[in-house]
Amino acid sequence: MKKFVIGITSGVLLSFATGAFASSPTVQAILFPSTINVHKEGKTSSIGSNNTILNYNNSVYIPLRSFAENMGSIVKYIPPNSATDSSSQIDIYSAPEPWRLTAKAPGNLPTSPLSLKLNKIQTDTGPSSTSIGIYAELYNTSKEIINFTKTKLEIKIERVMEGQPHKLVWSGDISPPNVTPPGDLIPGSDVKVVWGIKSPILYWDKKDIDGNSVPPGQYQVSISQPITIEYNVGAFVSQERSESQTINPDLSNTIVLYVQ
User: Fold this and answer.
1) Which end of the chain is more exposed for a tag (fewer CB within 10 A), N or C?
2) Is 198 a residue whose pLDDT tops 80?
3) Number of domains in the chain
């Protein structure tokens, strides 16, 4: 499940212009004027005063459609019918996040032609921060254009304690590019610049696999197991050749986090 950072802990409330719910049980909620800030891929969008936000039983509820569309998703509502067992059905279609082109100076890329790096977007890991963003960068150290077509990165986070084996606390997936062929193009590199692609951000909420907040300390982020990356080499489809490369977990694709 993908995790996103929002400016306020919230539930969701579907809003439609319909009287179909008139006979349903009712609850009393309090109007809760607020601005909901949705932070995604380094951009911020807001759900403001033009949406009705409610407080019920110490939980905040916002219109589902507004929230979903701010996340880049589409909401489809199906009225009660025999196919839905006489209950309403709500489908949410989430668009895949793209990998984006990036670049860096040559150096510190130990594998070839593809080299994988992990990184984080948040340096504040104190008690006030709610999550840490983790992303992957895949660099092309060769001079040829590479079409990155398929892989899946399984990420694990382990607690590091002196004199003890690392303890797994959380895991998640960074999905492969979901684009039509030929895939995501990574330009060839030269002595001045190395090109790569940056993955969508995977958020860790600083909780373990049981949903409990992790204790302060040092944590290590790495790929869970060796990954095989499939790609095509060449600028023209008629001249492409298919290749693959296995990247093993090592210090070059490992980062350390400190949670306070």
Assistant:
1) N
2) yes
3) 2
